Amino acid sequence: MNELPAPPEHALALSEQLSELIREEIAAHDGALPFSVYMERCLYTTGLGYYSAGSRKFGSAGDFVTAPELSPLFGRCPAQTCARVLEQLEGGDILEFGAGSGALAVDVLGELERLGHLPGRYLVLERSADLRARQQQRVAEQLPHLRDRIRWLDTLPEPGFAGVLLANEVVDAMPAERFRWTGTGVERFCVTCSAAGFEWQLQAATDEVLITAVQGLQQDCGLAAGYISEVNLSIAPWLESVAGVIGRGLLLLCDYGYPRHEYYHPQRNRGTLMCHYRHRAHTDPFLWPGLQDITTHVDFTAVAEAGVAAGLDVTGYTTQAGFLLDSGLDGLLQASGPVDSPAYIKAAQQVKQLTLPGDMGERFAFIGLAKDIDGPLPGFRMQDRRHRL
Ligand SMILES: C[S@@+](CC[C@H](N)C(=O)[O-])C[C@H]1O[C@@H](n2cnc3c(N)ncnc32)[C@H](O)[C@@H]1O
Protein backbone atom coordinates (compact mmCIF):
# COMPACT_ATOMS: atom_id res chain seq x y z
CA MET A 1 0.00 0.00 0.00
CA ASN A 2 3.01 2.27 0.60
CA GLU A 3 3.41 2.96 -3.08
CA LEU A 4 0.00 4.71 -3.38
CA PRO A 5 0.41 8.48 -3.80
CA ALA A 6 -1.06 10.31 -0.80
CA PRO A 7 -4.18 12.38 -1.51
CA PRO A 8 -3.97 16.16 -1.07
CA GLU A 9 -5.00 17.74 2.28
CA HIS A 10 -8.39 19.01 1.11
CA ALA A 11 -9.32 15.54 -0.20
CA LEU A 12 -8.26 13.92 3.07
CA ALA A 13 -10.46 16.40 4.94
CA LEU A 14 -13.49 15.35 2.85
CA SER A 15 -12.64 11.70 3.44
CA GLU A 16 -12.52 12.37 7.18
CA GLN A 17 -15.98 14.03 7.01
CA LEU A 18 -17.37 10.95 5.29
CA SER A 19 -15.62 8.65 7.78
CA GLU A 20 -17.24 10.54 10.64
CA LEU A 21 -20.70 10.08 9.09
CA ILE A 22 -20.05 6.37 8.68
CA ARG A 23 -18.75 6.06 12.25
CA GLU A 24 -21.95 7.74 13.52
CA GLU A 25 -24.05 5.31 11.48
CA ILE A 26 -22.06 2.35 12.81
CA ALA A 27 -22.63 3.60 16.38
CA ALA A 28 -26.37 3.92 15.69
CA HIS A 29 -26.48 0.31 14.43
CA ASP A 30 -25.04 -1.58 17.41
CA GLY A 31 -21.45 -1.07 16.31
CA ALA A 32 -21.44 -2.61 12.82
CA LEU A 33 -22.83 -2.06 9.31
CA PRO A 34 -23.09 -4.64 6.53
CA PHE A 35 -20.28 -4.16 4.01
CA SER A 36 -22.87 -3.35 1.30
CA VAL A 37 -24.01 -0.34 3.34
CA TYR A 38 -20.41 0.79 3.89
CA MET A 39 -19.75 0.47 0.12
CA GLU A 40 -22.92 2.42 -0.69
CA ARG A 41 -21.89 5.24 1.67
CA CYS A 42 -18.31 5.34 0.29
CA LEU A 43 -19.49 5.59 -3.31
CA TYR A 44 -22.74 7.54 -3.16
CA THR A 45 -23.03 9.75 -0.04
CA THR A 46 -24.19 13.12 -1.36
CA GLY A 47 -21.24 15.48 -1.85
CA LEU A 48 -18.73 13.10 -0.24
CA GLY A 49 -19.07 9.68 -1.88
CA TYR A 50 -16.62 8.65 -4.57
CA TYR A 51 -19.12 9.06 -7.43
CA SER A 52 -20.96 11.96 -5.81
CA ALA A 53 -18.03 14.25 -5.00
CA GLY A 54 -16.15 16.41 -7.45
CA SER A 55 -12.85 14.60 -8.00
CA ARG A 56 -11.74 13.44 -11.45
CA LYS A 57 -12.30 9.70 -11.61
CA PHE A 58 -12.01 8.61 -15.20
CA GLY A 59 -9.16 8.86 -17.68
CA SER A 60 -5.44 9.34 -17.28
CA ALA A 61 -5.79 12.05 -14.58
CA GLY A 62 -8.21 9.93 -12.54
CA ASP A 63 -8.23 6.50 -10.92
CA PHE A 64 -9.10 4.13 -13.75
CA VAL A 65 -9.83 4.13 -17.47
CA THR A 66 -13.07 2.69 -18.81
CA ALA A 67 -13.47 1.53 -22.41
CA PRO A 68 -15.38 4.65 -23.61
CA GLU A 69 -12.58 6.77 -22.10
CA LEU A 70 -9.92 4.67 -23.76
CA SER A 71 -11.20 4.96 -27.30
CA PRO A 72 -14.01 6.61 -29.26
CA LEU A 73 -14.12 3.43 -31.37
CA PHE A 74 -15.62 1.52 -28.42
CA GLY A 75 -18.96 3.38 -28.38
CA ARG A 76 -19.31 3.18 -32.15
CA CYS A 77 -19.70 -0.62 -31.79
CA PRO A 78 -22.76 -0.81 -29.50
CA ALA A 79 -24.13 1.98 -31.70
CA GLN A 80 -24.42 -0.65 -34.48
CA THR A 81 -26.59 -2.77 -32.15
CA CYS A 82 -28.65 0.29 -31.20
CA ALA A 83 -29.18 1.11 -34.88
CA ARG A 84 -30.54 -2.39 -35.59
CA VAL A 85 -32.95 -2.24 -32.63
CA LEU A 86 -34.15 1.28 -33.49
CA GLU A 87 -34.67 0.06 -37.06
CA GLN A 88 -36.81 -2.87 -35.84
CA LEU A 89 -38.82 -0.54 -33.63
CA GLU A 90 -39.10 2.09 -36.38
CA GLY A 91 -37.89 4.65 -33.86
CA GLY A 92 -37.39 4.67 -30.11
CA ASP A 93 -35.09 6.12 -27.48
CA ILE A 94 -31.82 5.28 -25.80
CA LEU A 95 -31.40 5.30 -22.03
CA GLU A 96 -27.90 5.18 -20.58
CA PHE A 97 -27.32 4.31 -16.91
CA GLY A 98 -24.36 5.84 -15.08
CA ALA A 99 -22.90 7.76 -18.01
CA GLY A 100 -19.56 8.64 -16.35
CA SER A 101 -17.83 11.46 -18.18
CA GLY A 102 -20.37 11.33 -21.05
CA ALA A 103 -17.90 9.76 -23.49
CA LEU A 104 -20.13 6.81 -24.44
CA ALA A 105 -23.16 9.07 -25.00
CA VAL A 106 -21.17 11.29 -27.36
CA ASP A 107 -19.72 8.36 -29.35
CA VAL A 108 -22.98 6.41 -29.61
CA LEU A 109 -24.95 9.46 -30.70
CA GLY A 110 -22.26 10.53 -33.16
CA GLU A 111 -22.26 7.10 -34.80
CA LEU A 112 -26.06 6.86 -34.87
CA GLU A 113 -26.15 10.22 -36.60
CA ARG A 114 -23.68 8.95 -39.23
CA LEU A 115 -25.81 5.81 -39.67
CA GLY A 116 -29.02 7.83 -40.04
CA HIS A 117 -30.59 6.21 -36.95
CA LEU A 118 -30.67 8.92 -34.32
CA PRO A 119 -32.96 8.01 -31.40
CA GLY A 120 -35.89 10.25 -30.58
CA ARG A 121 -34.28 11.02 -27.22
CA TYR A 122 -31.04 10.02 -25.48
CA LEU A 123 -31.88 9.74 -21.80
CA VAL A 124 -29.30 9.53 -19.02
CA LEU A 125 -30.03 8.20 -15.56
CA GLU A 126 -27.15 9.30 -13.35
CA ARG A 127 -27.03 9.11 -9.55
CA SER A 128 -24.21 11.63 -9.23
CA ALA A 129 -24.96 15.36 -9.55
CA ASP A 130 -21.27 16.04 -10.20
CA LEU A 131 -21.08 13.53 -13.07
CA ARG A 132 -24.34 14.85 -14.51
CA ALA A 133 -22.78 18.33 -14.71
CA ARG A 134 -19.68 16.92 -16.42
CA GLN A 135 -21.81 14.99 -18.91
CA GLN A 136 -23.83 18.11 -19.73
CA GLN A 137 -20.67 20.10 -20.34
CA ARG A 138 -19.22 17.41 -22.62
CA VAL A 139 -22.38 17.12 -24.69
CA ALA A 140 -22.59 20.92 -25.00
CA GLU A 141 -19.00 21.03 -26.27
CA GLN A 142 -19.00 18.00 -28.58
CA LEU A 143 -22.58 17.63 -29.79
CA PRO A 144 -24.15 21.08 -29.45
CA HIS A 145 -26.59 20.41 -32.33
CA LEU A 146 -27.97 17.29 -30.58
CA ARG A 147 -28.20 18.83 -27.13
CA ASP A 148 -32.01 19.07 -27.24
CA ARG A 149 -32.38 15.32 -27.70
CA ILE A 150 -30.50 14.54 -24.50
CA ARG A 151 -32.34 14.54 -21.18
CA TRP A 152 -31.18 13.70 -17.68
CA LEU A 153 -33.60 11.71 -15.55
CA ASP A 154 -33.88 11.32 -11.78
CA THR A 155 -35.88 8.11 -11.98
CA LEU A 156 -36.69 5.42 -14.53
CA PRO A 157 -38.99 6.53 -17.37
CA GLU A 158 -42.66 5.57 -17.46
CA PRO A 159 -43.49 1.96 -18.44
CA GLY A 160 -43.69 1.42 -22.19
CA PHE A 161 -40.12 2.48 -22.98
CA ALA A 162 -39.13 1.44 -26.50
CA GLY A 163 -35.48 1.37 -27.50
CA VAL A 164 -32.09 0.47 -26.08
CA LEU A 165 -30.83 0.72 -22.50
CA LEU A 166 -27.05 0.88 -22.07
CA ALA A 167 -24.96 0.32 -18.94
CA ASN A 168 -21.18 0.21 -19.17
CA GLU A 169 -19.44 -0.68 -15.91
CA VAL A 170 -22.52 0.14 -13.86
CA VAL A 171 -23.30 -3.22 -12.22
CA ASP A 172 -19.75 -3.52 -10.81
CA ALA A 173 -20.33 -0.21 -9.00
CA MET A 174 -23.44 -1.43 -7.18
CA PRO A 175 -22.99 -2.20 -3.47
CA ALA A 176 -22.34 -5.90 -2.87
CA GLU A 177 -22.43 -8.16 0.18
CA ARG A 178 -19.25 -9.94 1.24
CA PHE A 179 -19.74 -13.38 2.81
CA ARG A 180 -17.94 -16.43 4.19
CA TRP A 181 -19.29 -19.94 3.81
CA THR A 182 -18.47 -21.76 7.05
CA GLY A 183 -19.17 -25.26 5.74
CA THR A 184 -22.61 -25.32 7.34
CA GLY A 185 -23.81 -21.72 7.31
CA VAL A 186 -23.30 -18.17 6.11
CA GLU A 187 -21.36 -15.36 7.73
CA ARG A 188 -21.68 -11.79 6.59
CA PHE A 189 -18.77 -9.35 6.54
CA CYS A 190 -19.67 -6.20 8.44
CA VAL A 191 -17.68 -3.03 9.05
CA THR A 192 -16.91 -1.77 12.52
CA CYS A 193 -14.48 0.87 13.78
CA SER A 194 -11.83 1.26 16.42
CA ALA A 195 -9.21 3.90 17.17
CA ALA A 196 -7.15 2.35 14.36
CA GLY A 197 -9.89 2.93 11.75
CA PHE A 198 -12.49 0.79 10.04
CA GLU A 199 -12.21 -2.97 10.46
CA TRP A 200 -13.91 -6.13 9.30
CA GLN A 201 -16.25 -7.99 11.63
CA LEU A 202 -17.78 -11.35 10.74
CA GLN A 203 -21.33 -11.98 11.94
CA ALA A 204 -23.64 -14.96 11.51
CA ALA A 205 -25.93 -13.89 8.64
CA THR A 206 -29.57 -13.32 9.53
CA ASP A 207 -30.71 -11.76 6.24
CA GLU A 208 -32.79 -14.43 4.49
CA VAL A 209 -32.05 -13.09 1.00
CA LEU A 210 -28.30 -13.31 1.61
CA ILE A 211 -28.53 -16.76 3.22
CA THR A 212 -30.63 -18.15 0.36
CA ALA A 213 -28.30 -16.62 -2.25
CA VAL A 214 -25.15 -18.09 -0.68
CA GLN A 215 -26.78 -21.49 -0.13
CA GLY A 216 -27.67 -21.46 -3.84
CA LEU A 217 -24.04 -20.67 -4.73
CA GLN A 218 -22.87 -23.48 -2.46
CA GLN A 219 -25.19 -25.93 -4.23
CA ASP A 220 -24.19 -24.73 -7.72
CA CYS A 221 -20.46 -24.32 -7.18
CA GLY A 222 -19.60 -26.50 -4.17
CA LEU A 223 -17.99 -23.78 -2.04
CA ALA A 224 -15.44 -25.16 0.42
CA ALA A 225 -15.59 -24.34 4.14
CA GLY A 226 -13.94 -20.94 4.67
CA TYR A 227 -14.71 -19.73 1.13
CA ILE A 228 -14.94 -15.92 0.96
CA SER A 229 -16.54 -13.97 -1.86
CA GLU A 230 -19.19 -11.39 -2.69
CA VAL A 231 -22.73 -11.49 -3.96
CA ASN A 232 -24.47 -8.53 -5.56
CA LEU A 233 -28.02 -8.62 -4.22
CA SER A 234 -28.89 -5.38 -6.04
CA ILE A 235 -28.87 -7.02 -9.48
CA ALA A 236 -32.26 -8.76 -9.24
CA PRO A 237 -34.29 -5.82 -7.87
CA TRP A 238 -32.55 -3.45 -10.28
CA LEU A 239 -33.29 -5.63 -13.31
CA GLU A 240 -36.87 -6.16 -12.16
CA SER A 241 -37.47 -2.42 -12.01
CA VAL A 242 -35.70 -1.82 -15.33
CA ALA A 243 -37.55 -4.67 -17.09
CA GLY A 244 -40.79 -3.24 -15.70
CA VAL A 245 -40.47 -0.10 -17.80
CA ILE A 246 -39.41 -1.79 -21.07
CA GLY A 247 -42.29 -2.12 -23.52
CA ARG A 248 -40.03 -3.34 -26.33
CA GLY A 249 -36.28 -3.11 -26.41
CA LEU A 250 -32.82 -4.27 -25.52
CA LEU A 251 -30.82 -3.83 -22.32
CA LEU A 252 -27.13 -4.03 -23.18
CA LEU A 253 -24.70 -4.42 -20.28
CA CYS A 254 -20.92 -4.42 -20.51
CA ASP A 255 -18.77 -5.10 -17.47
CA TYR A 256 -15.94 -7.15 -16.07
CA GLY A 257 -16.97 -10.46 -14.62
CA TYR A 258 -17.52 -14.14 -15.18
CA PRO A 259 -20.19 -16.77 -15.54
CA ARG A 260 -21.06 -18.17 -12.09
CA HIS A 261 -18.83 -21.27 -12.18
CA GLU A 262 -15.80 -19.16 -12.99
CA TYR A 263 -16.71 -16.43 -10.50
CA TYR A 264 -17.10 -18.85 -7.59
CA HIS A 265 -14.22 -21.04 -8.72
CA PRO A 266 -12.48 -22.92 -5.86
CA GLN A 267 -9.28 -20.96 -6.49
CA ARG A 268 -11.01 -17.56 -6.35
CA ASN A 269 -11.62 -18.07 -2.64
CA ARG A 270 -11.01 -14.49 -1.57
CA GLY A 271 -13.56 -12.94 -3.94
CA THR A 272 -13.16 -10.12 -6.42
CA LEU A 273 -13.39 -7.00 -4.25
CA MET A 274 -11.09 -4.36 -5.74
CA CYS A 275 -10.30 -0.73 -5.05
CA HIS A 276 -8.81 1.74 -7.52
CA TYR A 277 -6.81 4.81 -6.70
CA ARG A 278 -4.68 6.67 -9.24
CA HIS A 279 -4.41 3.64 -11.53
CA ARG A 280 -3.33 1.33 -8.72
CA ALA A 281 -5.57 -1.61 -7.83
CA HIS A 282 -5.59 -2.98 -4.29
CA THR A 283 -7.96 -4.76 -1.89
CA ASP A 284 -8.32 -2.42 1.12
CA PRO A 285 -11.77 -0.75 1.06
CA PHE A 286 -11.03 1.08 4.32
CA LEU A 287 -8.35 3.28 2.84
CA TRP A 288 -9.45 6.92 2.31
CA PRO A 289 -13.24 6.40 2.23
CA GLY A 290 -14.78 8.40 -0.61
CA LEU A 291 -11.49 8.97 -2.42
CA GLN A 292 -11.13 5.59 -4.09
CA ASP A 293 -13.36 3.40 -6.22
CA ILE A 294 -14.65 0.15 -4.70
CA THR A 295 -15.95 -2.55 -7.04
CA THR A 296 -16.77 -6.23 -7.36
CA HIS A 297 -16.86 -8.31 -10.53
CA VAL A 298 -20.20 -9.20 -12.09
CA ASP A 299 -21.72 -12.69 -11.90
CA PHE A 300 -23.19 -12.78 -15.43
CA THR A 301 -25.21 -15.89 -14.59
CA ALA A 302 -26.95 -13.85 -11.89
CA VAL A 303 -27.64 -11.12 -14.47
CA ALA A 304 -29.08 -13.67 -16.92
CA GLU A 305 -31.23 -15.38 -14.25
CA ALA A 306 -32.56 -12.10 -12.92
CA GLY A 307 -33.28 -10.90 -16.47
CA VAL A 308 -35.23 -14.06 -17.31
CA ALA A 309 -37.12 -13.86 -13.99
CA ALA A 310 -38.07 -10.30 -14.94
CA GLY A 311 -39.44 -11.41 -18.32
CA LEU A 312 -36.45 -10.67 -20.56
CA ASP A 313 -34.73 -13.02 -23.04
CA VAL A 314 -30.96 -13.45 -22.97
CA THR A 315 -30.36 -12.52 -26.58
CA GLY A 316 -26.57 -12.72 -26.42
CA TYR A 317 -23.54 -13.12 -24.18
CA THR A 318 -20.00 -12.78 -25.45
CA THR A 319 -16.59 -11.40 -24.62
CA GLN A 320 -15.89 -7.72 -25.21
CA ALA A 321 -13.48 -8.71 -28.00
CA GLY A 322 -16.14 -10.88 -29.64
CA PHE A 323 -18.75 -8.14 -29.38
CA LEU A 324 -16.55 -5.35 -30.74
CA LEU A 325 -15.16 -7.39 -33.64
CA ASP A 326 -18.64 -8.56 -34.66
CA SER A 327 -19.80 -4.93 -34.56
CA GLY A 328 -17.19 -3.91 -37.12
CA LEU A 329 -14.31 -2.65 -34.96
CA ASP A 330 -11.80 -3.74 -37.57
CA GLY A 331 -13.51 -1.71 -40.30
CA LEU A 332 -13.66 1.33 -38.03
CA LEU A 333 -9.93 0.97 -37.40
CA GLN A 334 -9.17 0.70 -41.14
CA ALA A 335 -11.21 3.87 -41.72
CA SER A 336 -9.24 5.82 -39.14
CA GLY A 337 -6.47 6.67 -41.64
CA PRO A 338 -3.58 5.28 -43.71
CA VAL A 339 -1.81 2.50 -41.78
CA ASP A 340 1.29 4.59 -41.14
CA SER A 341 -0.61 7.71 -40.02
CA PRO A 342 -0.48 8.81 -36.35
CA ALA A 343 -4.30 8.53 -36.16
CA TYR A 344 -4.21 4.89 -37.29
CA ILE A 345 -1.30 3.96 -35.03
CA LYS A 346 -3.07 5.49 -32.03
CA ALA A 347 -6.37 3.75 -32.90
CA ALA A 348 -4.59 0.41 -33.43
CA GLN A 349 -3.07 0.67 -29.96
CA GLN A 350 -6.53 1.33 -28.48
CA VAL A 351 -8.01 -1.61 -30.39
CA LYS A 352 -5.35 -3.87 -28.90
CA GLN A 353 -6.23 -2.74 -25.38
CA LEU A 354 -9.94 -3.25 -26.03
CA THR A 355 -9.60 -6.71 -27.56
CA LEU A 356 -6.48 -8.55 -26.40
CA PRO A 357 -7.37 -11.41 -24.01
CA GLY A 358 -4.86 -10.33 -21.35
CA ASP A 359 -6.16 -6.78 -21.54
CA MET A 360 -9.88 -5.93 -21.70
CA GLY A 361 -10.85 -8.37 -24.48
CA GLU A 362 -11.80 -11.34 -22.30
CA ARG A 363 -12.02 -9.84 -18.84
CA PHE A 364 -15.01 -7.80 -20.01
CA ALA A 365 -18.19 -9.21 -21.49
CA PHE A 366 -21.41 -7.97 -23.10
CA ILE A 367 -24.81 -9.42 -22.25
CA GLY A 368 -28.03 -8.50 -24.08
CA LEU A 369 -31.42 -8.84 -22.37
CA ALA A 370 -34.32 -8.26 -24.75
CA LYS A 371 -38.07 -7.88 -24.76
CA ASP A 372 -39.77 -8.57 -28.06
CA ILE A 373 -36.66 -7.95 -30.23
CA ASP A 374 -35.55 -10.28 -33.04
CA GLY A 375 -31.95 -11.50 -32.95
CA PRO A 376 -29.21 -12.17 -33.63
CA LEU A 377 -28.06 -8.60 -33.17
CA PRO A 378 -24.74 -7.01 -34.21
CA GLY A 379 -22.19 -7.83 -31.52
CA PHE A 380 -23.63 -11.26 -30.74
CA ARG A 381 -23.57 -13.03 -34.14
CA MET A 382 -19.97 -14.20 -34.26
CA GLN A 383 -19.54 -15.74 -30.83
CA ASP A 384 -22.33 -17.12 -28.64
CA ARG A 385 -21.27 -17.90 -25.08
CA ARG A 386 -24.71 -18.22 -23.54
CA HIS A 387 -24.08 -21.91 -22.81
CA ARG A 388 -21.42 -20.87 -20.31
CA LEU A 389 -23.83 -18.91 -18.14
C1 LIG B 1 -17.41 2.72 -13.07
S1 LIG B 1 -18.48 4.07 -13.38
C2 LIG B 1 -18.74 3.86 -15.11
C3 LIG B 1 -19.05 5.15 -15.82
C4 LIG B 1 -19.29 5.06 -17.33
N1 LIG B 1 -20.41 4.21 -17.65
C5 LIG B 1 -18.05 4.61 -18.07
O1 LIG B 1 -18.03 3.51 -18.58
O2 LIG B 1 -17.08 5.38 -18.13
C6 LIG B 1 -19.98 3.58 -12.62
C7 LIG B 1 -21.15 4.50 -12.85
O3 LIG B 1 -22.37 3.81 -12.50
C8 LIG B 1 -23.23 4.74 -11.86
N2 LIG B 1 -24.29 3.95 -11.18
C9 LIG B 1 -24.14 3.03 -10.21
N3 LIG B 1 -25.34 2.50 -9.86
C10 LIG B 1 -26.25 3.06 -10.68
C11 LIG B 1 -27.66 2.90 -10.85
N4 LIG B 1 -28.37 2.06 -10.08
N5 LIG B 1 -28.28 3.65 -11.79
C12 LIG B 1 -27.59 4.50 -12.56
N6 LIG B 1 -26.25 4.69 -12.44
C13 LIG B 1 -25.59 3.99 -11.51
C14 LIG B 1 -22.29 5.56 -11.01
O4 LIG B 1 -22.84 6.76 -10.57
C15 LIG B 1 -21.14 5.77 -12.03
O5 LIG B 1 -21.43 6.85 -12.89
Hetero groups in this structure are:
S-adenosylmethionine
Pick out the low-confidence regions: none
Broad structural category: alpha/beta
What count of helical segments does DSSP give? Answer: 14
How does the overall form come out from the CA principal axes?
globular
Count the beta strands: 16
Question: How much of the polypeptide forms β-strand, as a percent range?
Answer: 15-25%
Radius of gyration: 21 Å
Helix content: 25-40%
Mean pLDDT: 95
Q: Sheet bearing the most strands, described?
A: 8 strands, mixed
End-to-end separation:
35 Å
Helix-strand string: HEHHHEHEHEEEEEHEHEHEEEEHEHHHHE
Task: Summarize the structure in words.
The protein has helices at residues 9-28, 35-44, 67-70, 72-89, 103-115, 129-142, 208-221, 235-245, 260-263, 300-309, 320-326, 329-334, 342-355, 357-361; strands at residues 33-34, 93-97, 122-125, 150-153, 161-168, 177-181, 186-194, 197-204, 227-231, 246-258, 274-277, 280-282, 293-295, 298-299, 313-319, 364-371. The chain has 389 residues and is of the alpha/beta class. Helix 4 crosses helix 5 and helix 8 (235-245) packs across helix 10. The strands form 3 sheets. Strands 2, 3, 4, 5, 10, 14, 15 and 16 form an 8-stranded mixed sheet that branches. It contains 14 helices and 16 strands. Helices cover 39% and strands 23% of the residues. Bound molecules: S-adenosylmethionine.
Write the layout of secondary structure elements.
Layout: H1 9-28, E1 33-34, H2 35-44, H3 67-70, H4 72-89, E2 93-97, H5 103-115, E3 122-125, H6 129-142, E4 150-153, E5 161-168, E6 177-181, E7 186-194, E8 197-204, H7 208-221, E9 227-231, H8 235-245, E10 246-258, H9 260-263, E11 274-277, E12 280-282, E13 293-295, E14 298-299, H10 300-309, E15 313-319, H11 320-326, H12 329-334, H13 342-355, H14 357-361, E16 364-371
Parallel strand pairs: 2-3, 2-5, 3-4, 5-10, 10-14
Antiparallel strand pairs: 1-7, 6-7, 6-9, 7-8, 10-16, 11-12, 11-13, 15-16
Helix pairs in contact: 4-5, 8-10
The chain binds S-adenosylmethionine (SAM).
